[in-house]
Specification:
alpha+beta; 7-stranded mixed sheet; Methane Monooxygenase Hydroxylase, Chain G, domain 1; 41% helix; binds phenylalanine; 9 strands; BirA Bifunctional Protein, domain 2
């Protein structure tokens, strides 16, 4: 038996010597010291020896077992740290390399201005709702009191999809939709894109952004309209903004009013932005026509309201002195990068 013990020891140690990976070491360990391995085998054979021989041999086998375990573990440790060192070497990171430059996105000037406008109205007690860009003739025109032969319905102004379906020409399409689904008091602003079949120039485009707003309750007056618009324009353009109101006509309001602000570029002296007039139009508004309230299921005897619609690009033009509306939809980064701080 002693011979066998020495043989096993030599065999195991030489196999360990030959191991090149921690896996090899694990294999050697299982093969020699495992339940079905030769050391266990020797243990089983102790039964056949008489008690003195058994005691001596048992001691030797235990020593062998401990020796082999220690050798396996030592070899494992050595190889393990070597493997780890080479893995770390392979995965080495050069932390001194300059990082890749990020290009964080930011809001488009129109979106940023739209947010500012909506924030102002939300602070003033309005809530935000939206209507569809693809709309029926009914909500865009008919419910808003447009006569069947009204020129705005003409193919030259409106993009029709079918005889009855079109791209909304203004956000006023939200008025009757919201009235149908709510009861006064209604205080809503409705932002969105609008589409008109116009020649693309510095001042007009086939798509643009509007913010519609309306307030319907008992005893809403023209003074409330003036006060709301005045407060809003002061919040957006500063307290010293100069405002001019003109009477105007829209089929869905009576009376109607257009609001201009004094051109900030020339301080009213007259320049290209204001077409030499000294004033820039920012919104259309008026008291909601009784027929429109009726179409929305609201009794005009009991309730009254005002509405307005403003062009967001127009407000961008004035606030940021952008002379050409086309710059806003052509993605020239040299233009957009000028507005980092916005
Ligand atoms: N919808 C009108 C336009 O696009 C603006 C408007 C809205 C006027 C609400 C009056 C009331 O020009």
């Amino acid at each position: 038996m002693q011979q066998e013990i020495d043989g096993l020891r030599a065999d195991c140690l030489s196999k360990l010597e030959a191991a090149t990976t921690t896996r090899d070491v694990e294999d050697v360990k299982v093969r020699f010291l495992g339940r079905k391995g030769p050391v266990q085998d020797l243990m089983k054979r102790l039964r056949d020896l008489d008690s003195d021989a058994r005691r001596a041999a048992g001691k030797d086998i235990n020593t062998l077992k401990q020796e082999l375990e220690t050798s396996c573990d030592a070899r494992y440790e050595a190889l393990h740290s070597k493997e780890q060192a080479s893995r770390l070497e392979a995965e080495r990171l050069d932390v001194t390399l300059p990082g890749r430059r990020g290009y964080p996105g930011r809001k488009h000037l129109v979106s940023a201005t739209l947010d500012e406008i909506l924030d102002a109205f939300v602070e003033m007690g309005f809530s935000i709702q939206t209507g569809p860009d693809v709309e029926t003739d009914y909500y865009n025109f008919e419910a808003l009191n447009f006569a069947p032969d009204h020129p705005a319905r003409d193919m030259q102004d409106t993009f029709y999809i079918t005889d009855d379906v079109l791209l909304r020409t203004h956000t006023s399409n939200t008025q009757v939709r919201v009235m149908e689904s709510s009861r006064p008091p209604i205080r809503v602003v409705a932002p969105g894109r609008c589409y008109r079949n116009e020649t693309i120039t510095a001042r007009s485009h086939v798509f643009f952004t509007q913010v519609e707003g309306f307030y319907i309750d008992r005893d809403v007056s023209f003074a409330d309209l003036m006060g709301t618009i005045d407060e809003f324009l002061k919040r957006i353009f500063g307290r010293d903004v100069v405002i001019r109101c003109r009477n105007s006509y829209f089929p869905f309001v009576e009376p109607g009013m257009e609001v201009d602000i004094r051109c900030s570029l020339c301080q009213g002296k007259g320049c290209n932005m204001c077409k030499k007039s000294g004033w820039v139009e920012v919104l259309g508004s008026g008291m909601i026509h009784p027929e429109v309230l009726k179409n929305g299921g609201i009794d005009p005897e009991e309730f009254s309201g005002f509405a307005w619609g403003m062009g967001v690009e127009r407000i961008v033009n004035i606030k940021h002195r952008v002379h050409d509306i086309r710059l806003l939809s052509e993605n020239d980064m040299r233009f957009h990068e000028q507005f980092h701080a916005v």
